[in-house]
Amino acid sequence: MKARLRLTLNGHAPQGLPLEVRLEGPEVRGLLRQESPALGEVRLPFRARLEGERLVALPLPPPCLWVEGWARPTREGLELELEVALVLPPGQSWGERAFGRILEALLLRALEALSHRSRSPV
Question: In angstroms, rounded to a whole number, what is the distance separating the alpha carbons of residues 67 and 76?
Fold first, then answer.
């Protein structure tokens, strides 16, 4: 399952979003911080490489986010259209796999809420 986000990088910190995004050379790097009553603060890093206007996900050790999409320059900054998926270590038992699916559903719900709030520049 994937979620979609649209953000604009313009040198200002995100306002009201649990998301850090920055451009470092040809890479977009970031971190999603999500509070969970059961797990405390969950920190999910991501990286993607710019190839022209295309963002290609770079692998990180799980847990992390797999982020790919497009980056287009605009007057306001660099507009990012992202597809985001959660990467977890493989579950060994049915319980671990079920817990992973629950975490994925919770994250996607949080990303959908974030997507509605991310219309403001980041």
Answer: 22
In the block, residue with structure tokens 């509605």: 116
User: Residue 4: its pLDDT value, please?
Assistant: 86
Strand-pairing partners, residue 108, are none
65: β partners: 86
Most confident of 9-18, 33-42, 85-94: 85-94
Bridge partner list, 45: 31
Give me the domains of the chain, ranges plus CATH numbers.
3-117 (3.30.530.70)
Residue with tokens 């970031």: 30
**Maximum Cα–Cα distance for the chain, whole Å?**
50
